[in-house]
Amino acid sequence: MDTEDEKYLQVVTFMLGEEEFAFEISHVKEVIRLPVMTKVPKAKDFIEGVINLRGNVIPIIDLRKRFHFESHFDPRTTRIIILEIESIMVGGIVDAVLETKTLESSCIEPPPTAVMGGMESEYIYGVAKLEDRLISLLNIDKLLDFDRPTLKDR
């Protein structure tokens, strides 16, 4: 028997380039403007640095670099989404945060692996089909696996 929670998924939607993505809202702690970051020597190229957020040192991932988009920051719209999973906090730089949205589970389908491009499709666990757009749902566990090789590393 389906519970009310299983029928719906709450997400925070955001843009990377021209594409719309989402994180489950249960992992989102807050959204902040782009602060000054401290670089981390010898870190992966997609780790932009670390920030001190109210006493917590948080690594910041440039999601454009992580997904092989050209990286750029527009201070008017660029934001960091602070995420928490299993007591680990990390920030993800996005081009713009759009909205919080409640999706019906019936509109979510598995990602089309042929279109998403092989290994990189592992980062996407579903695609929400809405009337006027598609939203790729990101798998935070895979995103935080910093040891996973990217296509660029291969």
How would you describe the overall organization of this protein?
The protein is mainly beta. The chain has a single domain (4-141), classed as CheA-289, Domain 4 (OB fold (Dihydrolipoamide Acetyltransferase, E2P), Beta Barrel). The chain contains four helices and eleven strands. Strands 8-1-2-11-10-9 form a six-stranded mixed β-sheet. Strands 3-6-7-5-4 form a five-stranded mixed β-sheet. Strand 4 and strand 5 form a beta hairpin.
Tags for this model:
154 residues, mainly beta, OB fold (Dihydrolipoamide Acetyltransferase, E2P), five-stranded mixed sheet, 4 helices
Major beta-sheet overview? 6 strands, mixed
Tell me the overall shape: globular
Number of strands: 11
Q: Number of helix segments?
A: 4
Which H/E pattern describes the elements? HEEEEEHEEEEHEEH
Helix content: 10-25%
Please state the second-level CATH architecture: Beta Barrel
Overall average residue pLDDT:
86
Q: Can you tell me the CATH class?
A: Mainly Beta
Radius of gyration: 16 Å
| CATH fold name | OB fold (Dihydrolipoamide Acetyltransferase, E2P)
Entry summary:
The chain has 154 residues and is mostly beta strands.
Architecture blueprint of SSEs:
Layout: H1 4-7, E1 8-16, E2 19-24, E3 28-33, E4 47-53, E5 56-62, H2 63-66, E6 79-85, E7 88-94, E8 96-104, E9 108-109, H3 113-116, E10 124-129, E11 134-138, H4 140-143
